[in-house]
Every structure is written in structure tokens, then in C-alpha cells.
Amino acid sequence: MAWFILVRLLFLVGVSYSAAAIQPLPWGWAANAAFGAALASAAIALEWRMRDVSVPHLLGAVLGASLGVMFAGLVDRAMGVSDDARWIFFHRVIDLVFPYIGLVIGARRGEWLEPSRLVTMFRAAAPQRRHKILDTSVIIDGRVADICEAGFLDGALVVPQFVLKELQQVADSSDTMRRNRGRRGLDILQKIQKMTGVEVVVSDLDFPEVREVDLKLIELARALQGKIVTNDFNLNKVAQLRGVGVLNINELANAMKPVVLPGEVMKVFILKEGKEYNQGVAYLDDGTMVVVDNARRMISKTIDIVVTSVLQTTAGKMIFGRHIEAGAPPAAQGADRDDAKNRNKPAAPPPAPQQPS
């Protein structure tokens, strides 16, 4: 980094000295040196601003500006030469407008100069590639690797450079939990890359004017006309509001959970005590929480329960059930429990005697 600073200082001094020696302005060597320093500073600022621009976009900008200069020259020749000041000004405007338009359009469409895009231009007409842009959260989650291995994600999986940078920052964190999550995400990416039949593309396309990673993902999905793969609830909503397609892993997991109806009987393993009195808590293989009444004394045992209700939320599903004691049907147990509640109720006090009027 120190030699970069040294090179910039030498460049600044060289331009200032050249301006002071040649003196393009008629105001003395000091004013010319300041003018040269200002030009050098502007060039350094432009170089600093363009340090994050990808190579395809730089090539697109150069190619677009060159085509603009050529087109402006053709228009100048076609219009002819005149000594009229207005005609000369019109020529100068053309010489500036067309290169500017070519520069801007070439920089915005620079992704078409990527090798993968150039190859597709010379191939026969085929269905357009369906890009799936991976979010940081879904990479760390890890379930996307199993989905890819099962063949449910077609098209190319795009991993942006800014997502890799964020993963590396998480993996280098001083917090042990964050560091483990970041390293897990990098391991998941390596696992997906080694899968046969899965195409993983690392995209250099970036949007320096956008700072937030979520907004960068949305802009990248727009540029590639792809979909974002995530399990971030907020990113899901923002992307949908901006018209970008989203594949939410949590929604897929909820859709794949088996349908459970009230009255069904299932076997569960009571793992811990519930919040309410005489409740036990169990979990299904997919992580669904099951709250069981009358199962506190059955902790660390596998029991039969009857489903009483199912609660579906955006975060997942919760199942409520009741323990089935051995030898008693579910309906009889419900009646016995109601009778027990009625027996445990205190007797109503006798009515107070009325006072004679």
C-alpha cells in the first residue's frame, strides 16, 4: 500500500512541475503549478473511484466511448465545414455528446463482455440461462447444498464477489460463533462446487453506488434477470416489492412438512418440560415443535399422542396434542379428563337463608 501512495505523490509532483515549466496559463509559474496539481488530483480521484469497477465494465466503457468518437466523426464529416460560430459550436457538442453516451451505455452493459456471455452469442439459439443468486444467509444455513444435490435447483448458481467478501469477514470475526458460521458457509460453497451437474459462477459484477448487500443482490438479480435464493424474511419482502423473484428456503421447508390433522395419532419423544403445567415438549424430524398435555412425567420417553390442533405461522408450524395412556382410546381419555375436572371442582355453597320481611 505504501508504494501506491508513493506513486501517486510522484505523479502529482510530476504534473505540477510540468505545468510550472511549460506554463499553459498566462498567470505565472505558481498558478500553473496549482493548475497542474488540481488536474493530477482529479485524475487520482477518478482512479480511486474506479478501483471497484469490474474489468468487463471498464472494457465496455472504453469500447462504448471509442464507438461514440467514431460515430461523432462520421456525423461531422457528413455535416461539412462552416465558419459560422453556431455551426462550430454544434460540431463541438456532437463531439462531446456521442462519446459520452457511448461511455455510459458501455459501462452499464459491460457484463455482456464476460466470456460466458460472449460464448452464448455464437451458439445456436437455446433457452436462456436461469440464474439463482445465493444470499449470505442461505449459504451459511447449508440446506441449499442438499437441495442442489437433490436436483431441485436448475440453472447457474451465482455467488457475487461482495457475498464472498461478507462471508470472509464473518469467518475472520473475533466472535467464535460468527467465525464458525462464516467457515461453515465457505465449506458449503466448496461442497456445492464439487457436485456434478451443478454450475457455480462467481460474478464480479458490483454496484459501488449501493452500499447494502441486500440492495446489491436485488440490483444483480435485475441485471441477470435471475432470482434470489435466501431465507432472510426482510430481503424476501423488499425483493418482492421491487419486482424481483425470490426462492425462500424457509417457505420451501414449510411447504414440505407433512400435513397433520386434528385427531391423528403419532409417536413422539418427549424431550423436555413445557411452559404450562403438566406439559411436555417434543420435536419432529423436520424440527416442528409438538406441545403435549399431560406428558410431564413422560420426559425421555416415546409415547403415543393424539393431535388436538395445529398452529401455522410464518416462522413455522406448531402441533398441540394430548398423551394417550395405555389401554384407553383418545375419546375415552378426553371424557375421563373432563370428569376428573368436574370432580375436582369445589361444591357450590348452599344458598343463604332469606330474611323475613
Descriptors:
OB fold (Dihydrolipoamide Acetyltransferase, E2P); five-stranded mixed barrel; 13 helices; five-stranded parallel β-sheet; Rossmann fold; 3 domains; single chain; 357 residues; alpha/beta
Low-confidence stretches: 330-357
Radius of gyration (Å): 35 Å
User: Class of the largest domain in CATH?
Assistant: Alpha Beta
**How much helicity do the residues have?**
40-55%
Second rung of CATH, namely the architecture of the largest domain:
3-Layer(aba) Sandwich
Instruction: Kindly give the count of domains.
Output: 3
Mean pLDDT: 80
Largest sheet: 5 strands, parallel
Tally of helical segments: 13
Strand order of the largest sheet: 3-2-1-4-5
The ordered string of helix (H) and strand (E) elements is HHHHHEHHEHHEHEHEHEEEEEH
CATH topology of the largest domain: Rossmann fold
How many beta-strand segments? 10
Q: Indicate the proportion of strand residues.
A: 15-25%
Structural class: alpha/beta
For CATH, the homologous superfamily of the largest domain is named as 5'-nuclease
